[in-house]
Amino acid sequence: MEGRINRIKAQLHDASYKLTPQREATVRVLLEDEKEHLSAEEVFMRVKEIAPDTGLATVYRTLELLTELRVVDKINFGDGVSRFDLRKEGAKHFHHHLVCLECGSVEEIQEDLLEEVEKVVEAKWHFLVKDHRLTFQGVCSKCRANGKKKN
Description:
It is a single chain. By secondary structure, this protein is α+β, with helices and mostly antiparallel strands. It folds into two domains: 1-90, Orthogonal Bundle (Arc Repressor Mutant, subunit A); 93-151, Dna Ligase, domain 1. The protein has helices spanning 2-14, 21-32, 40-50, 56-68, 115-125, 141-150; strands spanning 38-39, 72-76, 82-86, 96-100, 106-109, 135-138. Strands 1-3-2 form a three-stranded antiparallel beta sheet. The chain is globular. The N and C termini lie far apart (46 Å). The model has no long low-confidence stretch (mean pLDDT 89). Belongs to the Fur family. InterPro entries: FUR, Fur_C, WH-like_DNA-bd_sf, WH_DNA-bd_sf.
């Protein structure tokens, strides 16, 4: 974790920002809960446990800065809540998600499934793709199994 924090600190420094204690607390929460897709409010509640003097506005500003620097990605799974997802180090693109419409679970797909699609878009429309997001919405295997048991 410390190595990742130091690399994020370097990213901030390269963009003329400092890793303040409040920003570090926010980054630590995101790293500790890397598999979660936390809202700003959820991040704030966890940051308060580490750094009680940190305000909600500071967490919002930090998350926006980290989004701008592509340390995190701001995502919405259709529930009206912005969530923040730590970008994998060295990832060329944002990873994909499977969102269950029944239980709300979110599973990540680390494979880049759209490389060929990007090539077509770039060749056919002369559009340089910088990033993409793909979210599949459906029913997870657990809910499907539970549904079969009920019938």
